[in-house]
Amino acid sequence: MQFDSLDDIAAFCRDLPIGDARAAAAAMVRQRALTKPPGSLGRLEELAIWLARWQRRELPRLKQVTVAVFAGNHGIAARGVSAYPQAVTAQMVANFAGGGAAINQIASLGGAELRVVPIELDRPTRDFTIAPAMDVDEFLAAVEIGYRTVPPDSDLLAVGEMGIANTTTAATLCAALLGGGAARWAGRGTGVDDTGLACKCEAIEAAVSFHGAILRDPLAVAAGLGGRELAAIAGAVLAARRHHIPVLLDGFVATAAILPLAQLEAGIVDHCRAGHVSAESGHRALLRELGLEPLLDLDMRLGEGSGAALAILLLRAALSCHTGMATFSEAGVSGAGG
Amino acid sequence: MQFDSLDDIAAFCRDLPIGDARAAAAAMVRQRALTKPPGSLGRLEELAIWLARWQRRELPRLKQVTVAVFAGNHGIAARGVSAYPQAVTAQMVANFAGGGAAINQIASLGGAELRVVPIELDRPTRDFTIAPAMDVDEFLAAVEIGYRTVPPDSDLLAVGEMGIANTTTAATLCAALLGGGAARWAGRGTGVDDTGLACKCEAIEAAVSFHGAILRDPLAVAAGLGGRELAAIAGAVLAARRHHIPVLLDGFVATAAILPLAQLEAGIVDHCRAGHVSAESGHRALLRELGLEPLLDLDMRLGEGSGAALAILLLRAALSCHTGMATFSEAGVSGAGG
User: Fold this and answer.
1) Any chain B CB within 8 A of the CB of A1?
2) What separation in angstroms does the CA of A3 have from each of A137, A185, A233?
3) Contact B314/A105 with Cβ under 8 angstroms?
């Protein structure tokens, strides 16, 4: 896929496939025949039906599961919005490569292939309080990197990110596209103190004020107030939709990354589920805005795809029940009122 | 272990080991050295430390994981409190043996050994609105069955149950021991209609009124208003405590089963975590009474250990991060403010 302009992305979004209602209905019928009171597996039933809808199969599969983690650096880091130095982004990418990070352990447990994609770490985005973070070409390049990262034959995609200062970027996107001011969206990220939090709020307000003219255009906001790893996540989510791959989102940053898409085209993120709600304060409000109900709520706030990868385990459980359980008639179990 | 009287159980409870604070502290120190902002793995960190405390090892293990599912039948079923006939208890035990139930799939995914223990299914407890459900000897026998089911070398125990009508039994125990009336504790179980729910409330009120004289004695309540599979769960939880095995509880019935122990001796269920909160209406209130914060909230209400077994996956993730991640110094990653 090549995107030559923001309009190309908008046109692409208007033309994406919807889910397969017939496969979903067949999965629903199957769920009702399994040896359990109807509905008693709760969200595990809903997840099996959701997989069926987007994979277009009554019996979905989870053979090829991809965890994509995109990394980027942010000019806004210079404003003292993070507890960690910018060098940590590259150090953590090296840690991913060496297998020493949380996401390595969790992705491995989930039977997923981990793809780590650093994007021009030596070329941070510009400080968006005084300039566009990216120009359109830089933004489109990052979207395409994300798009190309997704193996078209994946059965499931989990997306995450790494980027010092990127909760500030995410909060700025939310403030720009949803309003409510900096305080609604700024949290403590990796653990900033009160001074750091004040810097963060100041940066967000300054950015929204500086970019006032473009706030009605979600893709222009994604370029001007976003980050490369966020743009790549948006690209990956579009690729997944094109290839009928359901998606698990990670935390606040990954969810903010798809907000511009969601505003661009109704239903464009229907193939996504929130793997978890993070402890980062804006995430719960953002999920509510997007109509996403998180699968896990474990007070995590690490990023790097960890919450999304953890939710892969729940999908495996949902699928193993869906495909492995006996039906009432197979098992000779009496039904309700029987 | 042989229990010859209710007093034997009470004495046993007073003499049980507490957790290992030194192993927990070492695990906490380790967590802070791993390549992530402190606390950013949220409850996964707390779970690793909890495993360390109860296994008495800085680096816990999950090699031998046991899922114990106890089944029993209930005289109260005759009062129309369930949507399913009593025969389903034995049919589902056969389904467990055949590998066709949800718990088979989830326990297998969690790498756990499933032990299904039907207890005198052809001899239901007595209708506790008009008689004691069990006499003391019957109760003690069920406790001992549960106790003996737990392999002493288990690294983790998940407990669940199967028993048509047993959400009525669980609600009755809660009403008897915690008060608040039938309406606070009665839910729809496997899916009773309004008439069934009314029958359920009526049965609970009748039972509490009939047994008024024993309500101050938690173990007498567990015998007189309980069920065999609930007594067995209590026995299994005591065995786990004796053998330093952390425990995951399943839903409303499994949690109600340990309520008498919790009332008997402070801290007696500190080695237990709630695998999930079920959709059965009384469960959330019961967890709050016990100070237990559930790990999962997926609208499940199946029983058979399914929610507890699902939480095994989270423990495996917590452990894999705890033992598999690199430290800041190993990975050459800068710390906060560094």
Assistant:
1) no
2) 9, 30, 15
3) no
Set of chain A residues whose Cβ sits within 8 Å of the Cβ of B83: 37, 336-337
Cβ neighbourhood burial of B218 (10 Å; 0-12, 13-18, 19+): buried
Check CB contact under 8 Å for A334 and B84. yes
Q: Looking at residue B337, what is its pLDDT?
A: 64
**Structure tokens belonging to residue A296:** 């896990």
Q: Is B39 left (phi over 0), alpha (psi -120 to 50) or beta?
A: left
| A338 contacts B42? CB cut-off 8 A | no
* A336: contact with B, CB 8 A cutoff: yes
Helix, strand, coil percent values for chain A (each to nearest 5): 55, 10, 40
Average pLDDT, chain B: 96
A284 touches chain B (CB under 8 A): no
What tens digit of pLDDT does each residue of A207-244 get?
A: 999 999 898 899 999 999 999 999 999 999 999 999 99
One-letter amino acid identity for B146? Answer: G
Provide the annotated active-site residues of A: 304
Q: For residue B170, give both structure tokens.
A: 């669980």
- Among residues 98-117 of chain B, which lie with CB inside 8 Å of chain A? 98-102, 104-106, 108-109
pTM attached to this predicted model: 0.97
Strand spans (E) along chain B: 65-71, 112-118, 156-162, 247-249, 272-274
- Report d(CA B57, CA B55) in Å as an integer: 5
Contact B228, B138 (CB under 8 A): yes
Contact of B76 with B127, CB cutoff 8 Å: yes
Q: Determine the longest span between alpha carbons in chain B, in angstroms.
A: 71
Question: Can you tell me the distance from the alpha carbon of B247 to that of B309, in angstroms, rounded to the nearest whole number?
Answer: 11
Helix pair angle (B306-324, B43-55), 10° resolution = 90
By three-state DSSP, how is residue A243 classified? coil
Q: Is B164 exposed, middle or buried (0-12, 13-18, 19+ CB in 10 A)?
A: buried
Q: Cα B319 to chain center, whole Å?
A: 21
CA dist., res. B75 & res. B164, Å (int) = 10
Strand stretches in chain A, DSSP E: 65-71, 112-118, 156-162, 247-249, 272-274
Query: Which chain B residues have a beta carbon less than 8 Å from that of A108?
Result: 320
User: Which of B300, B326, B333 minimises the CB distance to A42?
Assistant: B300
Q: Which of A301, A257, A140 is nearest to B42 (CA)?
A: A301
Quick one: DSSP state of residue A159? E
Tens-place pLDDT, residues A151-201: 999 999 999 999 999 999 999 999 999 999 999 999 998 889 999 999 999
Q: B304 catalytic, yes or no?
A: yes
DSSP code, position B83:
S
Check CB contact under 8 Å for A300 and B91.
Answer: no
A 46-105: CB under 8 A from B: 83-85, 87-88, 91-92, 94-95, 98-102, 104-105
Amino acid of residue B269? V
Rounded-to-integer distance, Cα A148 and Cα A29, Å: 36
Structure tokens at A267: 């239903």
Contact A101 B325 (CB under 8 A): yes
Question: In chain B, positions 170-229, which contact chain A (CB-CB < 8 Å)?
Answer: 190-191
Which of A318, A272, A314 is CA-nearest to residue A296?
A314
Q: Which residue of A has its CA nearest to B314?
A: A310
Size of interface A-B (CB pairs under 8 A): 195
Cβ-defined contact of B334 to A310 (cutoff 8 Å): no
